Amino acid sequence: MAGEKAGRKSYLRTLWERLSRISSSEVRRWWLRRVPILEWAPGYKLQDSFIPDLISGMMLTVQQVAQGLAFAVMSSVHPVFGLYGSFFAPLIYAIFGMSRHVITGTFAITSLISCAAVERLVPLNSSNVTNTSLGDLGLSDFDMQRIGVAAAVTFLGGVIQVSMFLLNLGCTTILLSEPVVSAMTTGAATHVVTSQVKFLLGMKMPYISGPLGMFYIYIYVFKNIHLVNIGALLLSLLSLVVLILTKELNEKYKSKIRFVIPIDLALIVSTSLACYFADMPKSIGTDVIGYIPKGIPLPQAPPMDTLQHVVVEAFGVAIVGYAVSIFLAYNSSKKFKYPVCENQELFAHGLSNIIPSFFFCIPNSGAPVRTFLLYSMGSKTQVASLISCALVLIVIYFVAPLLYWLPMCVLAAIIVVGLKGMLIQFRDLKKYWNVDKCDWVIWICTYLVTICFAANIGLLFGVVFSIAVGVLRLTRSKILHIVYMHEEYSAITEDKYPGLKIISIGSPLFFLNARRFHTNILEMIGKCVTRRGSCAHKTGALLMTMPRGVYKGKFQSDRSLSVILILDCSRIPFLDCTGVTALTQIFQDLGDYDTNVLYSGCSASLVKALMFCGSDCGPKQKHFFSTIRTALDAVKLKQCGGSSLEVLDSSDA
After folding, report:
1. Are 110 and 353 contacting, i.e. CB atoms less than 8 angstroms apart?
2. Which residues pair with 501 in a beta bridge?
3. Is 483:505 a contact under the CB 8 Å cutoff?
4. Cβ atoms of 548 and 529 closer than 8 Å
5. 508, 476 in Cβ contact below 8 A?
């Protein structure tokens, strides 16, 4: 007993000593790392950023309101709960998230996953609920029980994401290759379109789910085609035509006009007024949104006894939602050159699910539609999200009750057209076929599994299948040897070739190591700048004198000297689409900092792959050389007074 007390005292003493050694600067760094708004908000540039953020926030509000209503219906809960999710989730993410162009909110895929739990636990024919109103919201017990299940999925999904953050599992995103995420989101978008068919046609049909459920829905529709509501069908077709044409015009003339026509808002207002004056629910039998309560309810804990019944759906929400969001964050960080931490994103998305679940919110995630909208509107910071939250709050208190007459078929049309960005990912198949046929096979198989089962199953299959293909290709590749430079290159010095760097890539370059390869090159650049000259005389697999600059997540460049980097690609056993993207990203990143990147030993397939990935270093730019010697001759000719490095390319060899 005395020994236990002594041990406890020793532990407490050690803990106190560790805590007492923490300085105020360390505490400050921790808060800045965990609450990013404390870092970027004080430096917000009002004159440069506020107007783009204001316009983006206003346009984003239209998307958030329309999608909030629609995806709540998709989750089989009352539409008002989608509005709550469009307010609380982006507000929390703006505080804790790092990406400036990822806006959380209701999302089609997570709504479908949540719907499965709601329909299973509280079906339409449930005898355990009544239709009496409950509380300040004035909704039935049935509606409240349904949102209780959805809130439980939201809460547990957030807990899983925060648990992954505590276990430092953000790095597991290296398992998510581009073809897998593309195929999964395309398959999920196909499911969403299928779920909206009954609203577009104005049909009453039972809830159908499970394996091959999508195909059973179409079978039911064709067998009961006589139940189609002609009025709802015509209104759906009219809405689809107006939405598609207007959005195409917005895209075509976005460089000439400084604003985007808010066709979603215009369609919602016009069809609601038309439905009210024509009394469409009685005249043509069109379903409408119905009663929407005003205001925000008091917080209430999700039903904890439901958590054990929604574990599968919660894992689906946590993994699928995070996978889509982190890919959007990666793309935004590459496009606009700012850092994103995978683990912090897990923390932000976890809180964006946990806290809103106490306000009757359905699961949320980042969405491609909202991110692309911010791109097109020139949004600068998370202030756009905060402005959108303020406007959504105004809608909840003053405008929401006026949406009573909004036709359901119009909401379905808005959802379907909004999924265009995910559906056109079918065009990626051409790129994968020309870059790497294994990626093409992975895309096709992942898509088929997703449409046959569900998004979470498709994602799991895609990850396992892509890893299996990668391991198989790795085991069947040629044995790698350490590459030593020949004697003819041993005289390379800074005096003879000032600013010259050579890197020989002697390993496979694919989705499992492409990101690390890209990061390592940038980190080596940052390290070697402090010992310039000492690395220049090294021979072996790597000659590492690097360009001017310090790597701290982004370059701080000194353009006083131009640097030439030769990448020897002759010993790469194989590479996939992600690996090719890493090579093109290196070319673009270093090109911004006065560094010429030359490729030597590239096969014809690699040159073709770089072209299909949209690289600026295609053959017309003549940055390709058959050997290192050919590249060195071009460098020497340039330094002797030649006008360009573009002298000897792979076609000359």
Report:
1. no
2. 565
3. no
4. yes
5. no
Question: What tens digit of pLDDT does each residue of 609-623 get?
Answer: 887 775 555 444 567
309-348 pLDDT per residue, tens = 999 999 999 999 999 999 899 889 888 888 888 899 999 9
- Dump the DSSP string for 524-546: HHHHHGGGTTTTTT--SSEE---
Amino acid at 310: V
Q: What is the pLDDT of residues 494-548, one digit of tens each?
A: 455 656 777 788 778 888 778 778 877 777 655 444 444 444 333 333 333 333 3
Chain centroid offset of residue 318 CA: 13
Q: 490 or 445, which is more confident?
A: 445
Closest to 545 measured CA to CA, from 524, 562, 573, 523: 524
Higher pLDDT, 590 or 384: 384
**What's the count of helices (H) and strands (E) in the chain, helices before strands?**
26, 11
Residues 6+ away with beta carbon under 8 Å from 90: 64, 103, 104, 105, 352, 385, 388, 389
CB 651 within 8 A of CB 619: yes
Q: What is the dihedral of CA 174, 177, 181, 186, to 10 degrees?
A: 180
**Encoded amino acid at 626, one letter:** S
Give how far Cα 219 sits from Cα of 189, 203, 213, 215, 222, Å: 19, 14, 10, 6, 5
Closest residue by Cα to residue 319 from 526, 417, 221, 457: 457
Percent of the chain whose predicted confidence (pLDDT) is above 90: 39
For 450-462, how does the pLDDT look when each residue is reduced to its tens digit (9 = 90+)? 999 988 899 999 9
Strand (E) positions, 445-562? 500-504, 542-543, 550-551, 555-556
How many Cα atoms are found within 13 Å in the side-chain-facing hemisphere of 441?
A: 9
> Dihedral sign, CA of 522, 524, 525, 527?
positive
β-strands 139-140, 133-134: how paired? antiparallel
Check if the beta carbon of residue 359 is closer than 8 Å to that of residue 81: no
Give the count of beta carbons closer than 10 Å to the beta carbon of residue 191. 22
The DSSP code sequence of 318-338 is HHHHHHHHHHHHHHHHHHHT-
Residue 366, strand partner residues? 104
In 3D space, the residue among 337, 296, 365 whose CA is nearest the CA of residue 97 turns out to be 365
Whole-number pLDDT of residue 217:
93
How far is CA 556 from each of CA 276, 380, 522, 528, 593, rounded to the nearest angstrom?
A: 60, 21, 12, 14, 9
pLDDT of residue 614: 59
